[in-house]
Design goal:
The protein has about 675 residues and is α/β, with parallel strands linked by helices. It contains 21 helices and 15 strands. Strands 6-8-9-10-7-11 form a 6-stranded mixed sheet. Strands 1-4-3-2-5 form a 5-stranded mixed sheet, covered by helices on one side. The protein has a 4-stranded antiparallel sheet with strand order 14-12-13-15. The longest helix has 28 residues. About 30% of the residues are buried.
Length: about 675
């Protein structure tokens, strides 16, 4: 029947705010509107000369606290033309019971005597009452106000806990708190992000596009007996584009796409997280085939049993248990695929990562040189740039940068160019933006004494000379003594090679290069400063990593005490004797590197002096400036620096990146050994 296709009438939902509105209208109306009476304003002269003289007055009320006089007229006289405008406005009564007239007294003294005299004069009688009029709202308000405040506070708290909205309203209210907060993207509301906006993630895009193809053409894969994967986990460091890839997937997919954050499942009410998981999957089954995207899934997917605390931890574990059941509880033919993102896969529960729940883990790492160039090209499109801007050159100057950092560099370049009133963004603006991203904002107004400036110049020159003369050190790009950031008084920027394996020799050379600033201070000034604090922190971390993680020490041996999942807790997986050996070997490694660094600077003292004096004069030196001062680097930048090792160590790459990308000097203050003059 045609009538079955008609939309059903939706009954309006009751809201407690309607009741509040009705009460407010009644209170205000009772204060300003007389619902039962209709009266006419007059004055005392007309009162005596007209109404009293005609004998129409039945009685009067003199309100002492307001100075008003209310006049009541006999009912039999209300039909006269004089009182045509005193018709009753009450729906249930035909007569107007008064008061019928009102007027204000300028003074109440002698008014009663005037009334008595007028009654004698006109031979009439009416009652006179002197009353105090009470405002029932003012008297009632102090008693009800505390209850009103309590109700409003309760409503406010319920709205906050339920994620907004009024009681009894839509899906985010207190009575619907167990409902899913997922945002639905379909063909009518897809985000304006496509795979063309995602650069540098070609392998990840292929995996994600294949998931979309699973949903569009399921028979293509099931006809051979295969099953559609139930879930895919996007894993990678922050800023690499995991959420952006999910947005692009929502924009490209022609199926419903539910997007939700892991923290949206967490509430202070017990059982709410599990309820929201059930509701989310219920909606997904109704919209199947579809995709569910859970961002930052580690908020609810942490490994169970690692925290012995109760309360909120139990609620989180209940939410995770419900998620595990839902992911493995429906058949693959339903066509619901789970997509999740996290930058901490090491803390996730093993049951969540097993095949059958998240069948695939898609790794999204920091882009390589080619990927960075592609990302720069994407972000350069909307910018008004000059012709000489080279994306490949910018990519080579931003090693280790994630996609979010590259986007920030492009945005900073546009702001810098606009600040200088330029019509287009030039390469110099991008260079300044990279410097600001690496070293921080340039502190032009920071006052530095000549003595401190000398120490900073020799410190940075020490880094430059050591890095210039070590085979495995990264080539220098720029060295400056211009203060930047919160506490950096100078920094040296290097260009690390795109590699994943690092040998012991490479890490030792990096350690020596990092110690070059402290060694130069001791050689030239005979004293050391606090400027090497950041350097010492990095070499300490590197030395402990070489010994306890990568097994690069003969005395400790080929062992690794790395604990990314926190399985060791607060304890150590080795004895106190081993701990002492590790500490001794770390000190010995750093001392040996420091002595070799000092010896190298003593041998190259002429180069150290040239660079330091040039820094004091120019403040900024580039690689070409160093070549003019001390000649070309004795080692080719293209020389292979990778020795034979067993497997790829991404941790080593991270430490090398941290060490070589920038050398920041902490602000110089009173040293532990001496105080700077």
């Amino acid at each position: 029947m045609a009538g079955n296709n008609l939309p059903k009438n939706k009954t309006p939902k009751f809201s407690i705010y309607w009741l509040y509105a009705v009460i407010a209208v009644i209170l205000l109306g009772s204060q300003f509107v007389q619902l039962d009476n209709n009266f006419k304003e007059t004055n005392s002269i007309k009162f005596f000369n007209t109404y009293v003289a005609n004998g129409h007055v039945e009685r009067i009320d003199i309100v002492r606290n307001t100075g008003e006089v209310k006049v009541y007229i006999y009912q039999q006289y209300l039909d006269q033309s004089l009182y045509n405008d005193l018709k009753s406005n009450n729906l249930f009564r035909k007569e107007n019971r008064g008061p019928h007239l009102k007027f204000k007294l300028s003074t109440m003294e002698g008014f009663v005597e005037k009334c008595e005299a007028s009654m004698d004069k006109y031979d009439t009688q009416f009652d006179i009452k002197v009353v105090d009029e009470q405002n029932w709202l003012v008297d009632f308000l102090p008693g009800i106000l505390p209850f009103v405040i309590i109700i409003l506070i309760w409503v406010f708290i319920m709205r906050r806990m339920s994620g907004g909205g009024g009681i009894g309203g839509g899906g985010g209210q207190i009575f619907n708190i167990g409902k899913s907060k997922a945002t639905l993207f379909d063909k009518d509301s897809n985000p304006n992000v496509t795979f063309s906006d995602v650069a540098g993630l070609e392998e990840a895009k292929e995996e994600v596009m294949e998931i979309v193809d699973f949903l569009k053409h399921p028979k293509k894969y099931t006809s051979l007996g295969g099953k559609i994967p139930k879930g895919a986990l996007l894993v990678g460091p922050p800023g690499t584009g995991k959420t952006l890839l999910a947005k692009a997937m929502a924009g490209e997919a022609k199926v419903p796409f539910f997007s939700m954050s892991g923290s949206d499942f967490v509430e202070m009410f017990v059982g709410v997280g599990a309820s929201r998981v059930r509701d989310l999957f219920k909606q997904a089954r109704e919209k199947a085939p579809c995709i569910i995207f859970i961002d930052e899934i580690d908020a609810i997917g942490r490994a169970r049993g690692k925290n012995m605390m109760s309360g909120g931890n139990d609620e989180r574990e209940n939410t995770l248990n419900q998620l595990l059941v839902e992911m493995d509880g429906f058949s693959s033919e339903k066509g619901v695929i789970i997509l999740a993102a996290t930058n901490r896969p090491d803390v996730l529960d093993n049951a969540l990562l097993r095949p059958g729940r998240f069948d695939r883990q898609i790794s999204i790492d920091n882009p390589d040189l080619v990927g960075r160039a592609e990302i720069f090209n994407v972000h350069l499109k909307p910018l008004k740039i000059a012709g000489e801007v080279d994306a490949e050159k910018l990519a080579s100057q931003t090693p280790g940068f994630a996609g979010a950092e590259i986007a920030n560099v492009c945005n900073e370049a546009a702001l810098i160019a606009a600040r200088k009133d330029k019509e287009a963004i030039e390469m110099k603006d991008f260079q300044d933006a990279i410097d600001r991203t690496i070293g921080g904002l340039e502190k032009k107004n920071k006052i530095i004494s000549d003595e401190e400036k000398k120490i900073i110049a020799w410190h940075e020159a020490g880094h430059a000379v050591v890095g210039w003369n070590l085979r495995h050190a990264d080539p220098l790009v720029k060295v400056t003594i211009v203060p930047r950031g919160i506490a950096a008084l100078g920094y040296a920027q290097y260009l690390p090679k795109e590699q994943f394996l690092h040998t012991r020799d490479q890490m030792i050379d990096s350690m020596c290069m990092t110690l070059g600033g402290r060694a130069a201070e001791e050689i030239i000034f005979g004293k050391i400063s606090t400027g090497a604090q950041n350097d010492l922190e990095r070499i300490t971390k590197m030395a402990y990593a070489m010994i306890t993680i990568y097994g690069m020490n003969n005395k400790v041996g080929n062992v690794s005490f790395n604990d990314p999942k926190g399985e060791y807790g607060f304890g150590k997986p080795y004895s106190e004797e081993t701990s002492k050996i590790i500490d001794d070997e770390v000190r010995k490694m750093i001392d040996d590197a420091y002595e070799s660094t000092k010896q190298l600077l003593i041998d190259k003292k002429d180069q150290l002096e040239k660079i330091a004096l040039a820094l004091l004069e120019k403040e900024v030196l580039f690689q070409s400036d160093l070549e003019d001062l001390i000649g070309k680097r004795p080692f080719s930048n293209s020389e292979s620096r990778i020795g034979p090792m067993g497997e790829v160590k991404q941790e080593a790459s991270a430490i090398q990146k941290e060490t070589n990308s920038v050398d920041e000097n902490q602000e110089i203050g009173p040293s532990t050994e001496e105080e700077i003059a």
